[in-house]
Each structure stands twice: as C-alpha cells, then as structure tokens.
Amino acid sequence: MKSNLISAITERMPTLSKGQKRIARFILEHYDSAAFMTANKLGREVQVSESTVVRFATELGYDGYPRLQKAMQELVRSKLTSLQRMEITRSRMRDDEVLDNIMACDIANVRQTLDEMPREVFNAAVDAIVNARRVYIFGAGSCRALANFIAYYLKMLLVDIHLIYTSSETEIFEEMLHIDERDAIIGVSFPRYSSKAVKAMHFAHSRGAKVIAITDTPASPIAELASYLLLAHSDMATVVDSLVAPLSVINALIVAASLRKMDSVTQTLTELEELWDQYDVYQKYSED
C-alpha cells in the first residue's frame, strides 16, 4: 500500500502544478497527519484551494479525494501505535461526540462491507468450512476474541474444530503439524497485523489447506494467502480496533454453516439443551 501510493506521487511529481506539488510534498512527509484531514483542511495546511486538493487526488488516479484519503488511512492504520491512535482520537472528537461518532463509524463499516462482499466468495467459504475434515481457527491480539467466538459456535455445528490458542510460534506450528488439503483454516487479522497470523496462514497455505482470510484490505499480508478472501471494513483509527463489521461477517458464516448442516445441528443442539438442563448450566427463572 505504501509503495503504491508513494510511487504514484513520485512518478507524477514532475507533471504536477505548483500547488499540487505542495500537497504531494506534505503527504510524502506527513501522510500520518494528512490521512485524517478533510480536503478543505489539507488545502488550508498547504495554502491551496480545496478544489486543488480534489484535482490532485484525480491526478493520482483516485476517484475523488475520499479514495485518496482511504489509501492514506489504510497505510497509517497498519503502523500507528496505541498512543498515536489515542492522540488522533483526541484531535478528531470531543468527549460528548464519542458515542455518536463511534457508532456512526461502525454502522458505515457494516454497510460498506455488505455492499462490497462478493456473495459467491462468501458461499464458497461456507462450503469449505462445512466440508473440511478439520477446521483450524487463528487470531492474535484483539482478533483472538473473534477466533474464540468462531470456535465456540462452530464446535456446536461441526465435529472437528481446532482453536489455535497460543502465543508461541513453535507451538502454533506444532498444533498445525497435521494440516493438509483436506482441512480449512479461518484466519482473522486486522491492523496492526500480527506476524504470527501471517506465518500461520502461510504454513496452512503451503500444506494445501483452504485458507479463509477475514481481513480489511487486499493489501493485508494474509490476503495473498487466501483461498477465500472476506474483506470487512474496520476504518477507525482509535485506541480500540473496530471489529463490528468483521464480527457481522463471522455471524453470517456461522448461520450459513448451521443451515448447511441443519439435520446434524438439530440433533446436537437437542442433546446440548438436555445436558445444560440436567447440569443447571444456565440460571432458571421461576414464573412467579
């Protein structure tokens, strides 16, 4: 992502107007700041008009300034430290704006993910999951919570689910020792991308397993390893990762898998309900 954006600016620099060159130099030197500026604010920063900023984005081959801004943000989000995220959050919103801004961003992420998700890829990923001999699941950092969620529900639907739950690279490979073309792996990775997730997906790919990658962009380091690439937007540079859209995709995967395995799932859930009732797993409420 960085090389593409920087290369585009560098290659076109000689043909740019004087004002556009000022924009280009600012982005090259301060893309971490520019990524979160509106076209108007960026123009004021380098003392050009907003229309000049928009024309600059078009000159680089982007369909308007929002596309250029998104390219900068995807670059930045993979590199920001938690402290830098906090500083950006403070500069972009007041305390009384947090709830509205964060939920609006999550809603936009879900809507955009739904609009852009190829249905044939999603359905093929579901088929790969339900037809696999064994399904491995891996997520690191904040994505580990999503991996746990997937494993919890898939264990109700399928016979052989293996959650890789370790921080040791050696143990990751040990747990995946027997993975092959009969298996599938679901990998979840969002900025800042985990190197362990990349290595796990690479190992699975090298063994011929079907790799289902849930990530945010084709430039993600696990995207090129995917048999089935499920992109979910997480466009939010705050101290926490926005994983609402990825979770929604995961919910859809689980529900679709349950419908594929309806007969066996019905029997499994019936047995589970009897066990839960027998051992008082869930709190019972009287009708009084």
Index terms:
288 residues, alpha/beta, five-stranded parallel sheet, 59% helix
Short description:
With 288 residues, the chain is of the alpha/beta class.
What is the topological layout?
Blueprint lengths: L1 H11 L5 H17 L4 H8 L3 H10 L5 H13 L4 H11 L5 H19 L2 H13 L3 E5 L3 H15 L3 E3 L5 H7 L8 E5 L6 H12 L3 E6 L12 E4 L12 H17 L1 H17 L10
Parallel strand pairs: 1-2, 1-3, 3-4, 4-5
Helix pairs in contact: 2-4, 3-4, 7-12, 8-12, 9-12
Description:
This protein is an alpha/beta fold and 288 residues long. It has 13 helices and 5 strands. It has a 5-stranded parallel sheet. Strand 3 (184-188), helix 11 (195-206) and strand 4 form a beta-alpha-beta unit. Helix 3 (39-46) crosses helix 4 and helix 7 crosses helix 12. The chain is elongated and about 75 Å long.
| End-to-end C-alpha gap | 61 Å
Total of helices:
13
Global Rg: 23 Å
Shape: elongated
Describe the biggest sheet? 5 strands, parallel
Mean pLDDT over the residues: 88
Relative strand content: 5-15%
Widest beta sheet: strand line-up: 2-1-3-4-5
Query: What is the number of E strands?
Result: 5
Broad structural category: alpha/beta
**Model regions low in confidence, pLDDT < 50 over at least 5 residues:** none
Level of helix content? 55-70%
Order of helices and strands: HHHHHHHHEHEHEHEEHH
